[in-house]
Design brief:
The chain is an alpha+beta fold. The chain contains 3 helices and 10 strands; from the N terminus they run H-H-E-E-E-H-E-E-E-E-E-E-E.
């Protein structure tokens, strides 16, 4: 998906989210990147409401914008749900740079699978791990098979798995 199309979709999603989450409207109005973010860098949040029969997380459409919008969405998500977990935060560049996507859920780390789509498929280079002693595994196949990299803490580079993750298993 092209960057401009992704931006239009993200803007539409943010506008739709603003009608249901009041704090997004305030922050969502500032669509321009912050001074420390280069143009084209977006920070997205998706929420997993459960898992399907195959263990794949059932996720919302990503809401994307500035770092401030992502922080607002995370705070709103935590306030609007009795229990919300952060499963992982992934970055398109090494050393936690570039665009990011944060996966939250009403399900804890326990083996749920996120299958990156669009921009995020094969475009993760660093990650922050939130699953405690349960590892987060990055696979090069969307069927969670083949080459794998497991992390138990934050990592500034996925090394040989940079830009190869098509399946991420939490826990």
């Amino acid at each position: 998906m092209g960057h401009h199309r992704m931006r239009r979709i993200a803007t539409a999603i943010a506008a739709a989210a603003a009608t249901t989450v009041g704090t997004v409207a305030t922050v969502g109005a500032a669509e321009a990147p912050t001074p420390t973010e280069p143009a084209g860098v977006e920070h997205c949040v998706v929420h997993a409401s459960g898992v399907d029969e195959d263990g794949v997380l059932i996720v919302s459409e990503p809401v994307c914008g500035s770092e401030r919008l992502a922080t607002s969405m995370l705070n709103s998500s935590a306030m609007s749900r009795s229990t919300t977990y952060t499963l992982g935060r992934h970055f398109s560049s090494t050393s936690y740079g570039g665009s990011s996507i944060t996966i939250t859920g009403s399900v804890p780390c326990g083996g749920g699978v996120w299958k990156p789509t669009g921009f995020w498929n094969n475009n993760i280079e660093s990650s922050i791990h939130y699953c405690g002693s349960s590892g987060t595994r990055f696979y090069d196949s969307s069927s969670c098979s083949g080459s794998v990299r497991t992390i138990f803490s934050s990592t500034s580079s996925l090394g040989s798995m940079n830009n190869r993750a098509s399946c991420v298993r939490y826990g």
